[in-house]
Amino acid sequence: MCPKPNDTSSALSKKSHVEIFSEPVPALFTALMSEADTQERWITFTFPVDFYTDPYRPKLEKEFKYWTQSAEQEVAPVKDVITLNCTVAYMSQCMSWNKCKQSCKSTGAQSYRWFHDGCCECVGDTCINFGIDESRCLNCPEPKEEDEEVDDEEVSYIYDNEENEHKEKRDSPKA
């Protein structure tokens, strides 16, 4: 049989918690994420993000436009967009919210996103909207085991605290 794909369509994989770190270390994050992790503790995704520069320009009362004419060449207009690469790292294993926060902080990330299915995403400093809003961890959520058929005869297990063993007890009618 072929292995089943990682199904991240559960309701838990769609909900997440995000937070920005007060003291990120972008150089550390870039150094750690520049190459694939040989131990596969995380996987990285890098994608382009457009930043519009209009909101950062000073607003002048009068706008001056300069036109130059040259017979030699034409100059292309300056675009109001800067494109940067955003890098995010998904931790391979499921982890708690607090462990996700600490793990991402130790990588120098700008922020993190912890999905309610246990997937953890560390987000670089050139990303917007906390990276990718999708759970993409390698081994998380953990695969569900197929439901086993229940026999007509119910079997219950009692944990014996004194001997630390599982004992099987079959329910039978009392005489």
| Helix/strand order, N-terminal first | EHEEHEEEE
Mean pLDDT: 75
Overall body shape? elongated
Main beta-sheet annotation: 5 strands, antiparallel
How would you classify the quaternary structure? single chain
Could you tell me the radius of gyration in angstroms? 27 Å
Question: What percent of the residues sit in helical stretches (DSSP H or I)?
Answer: 10-25%
Number of strands: 7
Beta fraction of the residues?
A: 25-35%
Total number of helical segments? 2
Q: Numbering strands along the chain, what is their spatial order in the largest sheet?
A: 1-4-5-3-2
Flag low-confidence runs: 1-8, 147-175
Helix/strand-derived category reads: mainly beta
N→C terminal distance: 48 Å
Biased composition (Acidic residues): 144-163
Domain Tsg C-terminal: 12-141
GO cellular component, one term: extracellular space
Protein name: Tsg C-terminal domain-containing protein
Key words describing this protein structure:
175 residues, mainly beta, 5-stranded antiparallel sheet, two-stranded antiparallel sheet, 7 strands, disordered N terminus, disordered C terminus
Description:
The structure is a single chain. The chain has a domain of 111 residues. It is 11% helix and 27% strand. It contains 2 helices and 7 strands; from the N terminus they run E-H-E-E-H-E-E-E-E. The strands form 2 sheets. Strands 1-4-5-3-2 form a 5-stranded antiparallel beta sheet. The N terminus and C terminus are likely disordered.
